[in-house]
Design brief:
heterodimer, A: 275 residues, mainly alpha, globular, B: 301 residues, alpha/beta, Rossmann fold, Alpha-Beta Plaits, 2 domains, six-stranded mixed sheet, four-stranded antiparallel sheet
């Protein structure tokens, strides 16, 4: 059996047209291309498109609701941003979850990981693209909130109140990025859309309620809660009052609830069989 | 060329693939034949890095799959035509592959034409595709990078007879241009129609391999005499030539090629009514037996 044509060497022009290995100049796949493809995959289905569109729709609806129903004294930029930010902080982690799990639930991973067998690079591209979408969404939300603030103040006959600084916007961005990383973590741990979404709601709705109840009825837990409850620690970012202790609590809780499971999940993604 | 060397894959105590070794040669279409659950798909997933082997190794064009810098340009892979996002159009799925490989945009339309999907069909969402259309789209994804090796798992599934003939011609042309093709099937007929070489797997083990001609020849020769009473004389003559014979209705199945049987008949002065290669009867028997064993033990994929 002929093994003369095993390694493609771009500089050698084949004299025999049937020498298949030398037909191409094969170049590695750059990360920018992977990111572009992953971005495309987020928008190219109806479900994906409307999930993305929901970010903008949520921002506009929330602003409209504030203008329509909120009392005049809360018509300020911070209130608009909070109104938009709450639903956004639910949608963004779900976008992060689905970017990972759709490869498994829809079984597209069979093609994706065959064309790009270095799964870590695929995941990196997904994380970069999703975080970029998150940051852009928050800038859009800030802009929609600002328009809402101007319109709302004009309707109420007030001067617009601008009370979001660069720092507090930065905290909000950080809080949402942590939320999206939570989504990735659940995505790589469960590798199934329904399981990961359910786990996300347990994480973001059931656990905080349970911790709050425990803190309310058990005195010993009250001081412990900020060190255990990751949502509690992240919520401090929205309050714009981060002390050194708050940062430590954020570090400890995210280590346990985010970084360690994320590392285990990534390890599983790299090793698990794709079927 | 694809080379599989003593590949083993265990799931707990279950051995799905057991020391499998074979080669798919350049310029030939190799058929990977076995009943459902025999280990074909597992072997193919290991080939392209989706599953880790317990031991052994696979090289494609002399390298480990993960060493290929842009695999789509070197190896075209179709493992499951239905493993696609149902909400994407056929053209979109092919465009994703084209962009991942960094090919020119015109290749999408060219490749769609090559696999016989119309513009209209390409614009439909995959959930509305028949299995045959999905297979064509999957083959398009495998072909778009103009690779030198094709690895196709059950590509003829869902194709009508005309589709199977189309695939045979396509793969024949691909191999004739110096490409390597490995395709699997659980249907002997499909493999017979398409493949040059055959590797038969059952319960994780290779049970037979060789060129189609060899495997069919090993099924022996079928011979019938004009006068039934002469059959014994022919059988004796063949036994003297140390050839094994098996009586079958009105004739003999002989473990030798037709030429030797003809010579023996000539020497014995027996007039023959029929003399021909026993087309694949042996292979078919072996394959049926494999299928029956697997079905009885209820082994799953």
């Amino acid at each position: 059996m002929s093994t003369a044509t095993q390694t493609p060497t771009p500089s050698v022009v084949p004299q025999v047209p049937t020498a298949p290995a030398a037909r191409h100049e094969v170049r590695p796949i750059p990360m920018s291309r992977l990111a572009k493809v992953e971005l495309r995959k987020m928008f190219d289905t109806r479900a994906g498109f409307w999930l993305m569109a929901s970010v903008a729709i949520v921002a506009v609806l929330a602003s409209a609701a504030v203008i329509a129903w909120a009392p005049d004294e809360v018509i300020n930029q911070e209130f608009f941003s909070t109104a938009i930010g709450m639903p956004l902080s639910v949608v963004l982690p779900i976008i992060a979850i689905l970017s990972i799990t759709s490869e498994y639930s829809q079984r597209t991973g069979l093609t994706t990981y065959t064309l790009v067998p270095w799964r870590g690079r695929v995941i990196t591209a997904k994380v970069l693209v999703t975080l970029a979408i998150g940051v852009v969404s928050m800038v859009v939300a800030l802009a929609v909130g600002a328009v809402g603030n101007v319109v709302g103040a004009a309707i109420a006959g007030l001067d617009p109140v601008w009370n979001i600084g660069v720092q507090s916007f930065g905290y909000i961005v950080l809080a949402n990025i942590l939320g999206m990383l939570m989504g990735f973590m659940l995505g790589v741990v469960f590798r199934s859309s329904p399981a990961a979404v359910v786990a996300y709601f347990v994480y973001s709705l059931v656990l905080p309620g349970a911790f709050a109840a425990l803190a309310a009825f058990q005195g010993w837990f009250r001081d412990l809660q900020p060190w255990v409850d990751v949502n509690f620690a992240i919520t401090r970012l929205f309050d714009n009052s981060m002390t050194a202790e708050n940062w430590q609590q954020l570090g400890v809780t995210t280590l346990v609830w985010l970084w360690i499971p994320l590392a285990l999940g990534l390890r599983a993604v790299l090793r698990a069989e794709v079927k | 060329m694809i080379s599989v060397e003593s590949l083993t894959k265990q799931y707990g105590s279950f051995t799905a693939v057991d020391h499998v070794s074979f080669t798919a040669a350049t310029g030939r279409v190799t058929g990977f034949l076995g009943p459902n659950g025999a280990g074909k798909s597992t072997t193919m997933r290991v080939m392209v890095g989706l599953t880790r082997a317990t031991s052994g190794r696979v090289t494609v064009t002399g390298r480990d799959y993960r060493e290929l810098v842009n695999p789509g340009l070197e190896v075209g892979v179709l493992l499951d035509a239905s493993a696609q996002h149902a909400g994407r159009t056929g053209r979109e799925i092919l465009t994703i592959a084209q962009q991942t490989m960094g090919l020119s945009r015109t290749r999408v339309a060219e490749t769609l034409a090559r696999v016989g999907l119309t513009e209209d069909e390409a614009g439909r969402r995959v959930r509305d595709y028949s299995l045959g259309m999905r297979q064509r789209l999957g083959i398009a994804t495998a072909l778009i990078g103009d690779p030198e090796v094709l690895i196709l798992d059950e590509p003829a599934n869902g194709l009508d007879p005309a589709g199977i003939r189309w695939m045979r011609d396509l793969l024949r042309g691909f191999a004739d241009q110096g490409g390597t093709v490995l395709l699997s099937s659980h249907l002997l007929h499909e493999i017979e129609v398409i493949a040059d070489d055959i590797v038969v797997i059952g319960q994780g083990r290779i049970v037979a391999q060789g060129s189609k001609a060899e495997l069919l020849a090993s099924a022996g020769t079928l011979v019938r005499t004009s006068d039934p009473s002469h059959l014994d004389r022919l059988a004796r003559a063949l036994h003297e030539a140390s050839v094994v014979t098996t009586p079958i209705d009105g004739g003999l199945r002989v473990d030798a090629d037709p030429e030797l049987v003809g010579e023996a008949a000539h020497r014995a002065g027996v007039v023959l009514r029929e003399l021909r290669a026993a087309d694949g009867a042996g292979l078919e028997e072996m394959f049926l037996q494999l299928t029956a064993e697997t079905a009885r033990e209820g082994a799953a994929a």
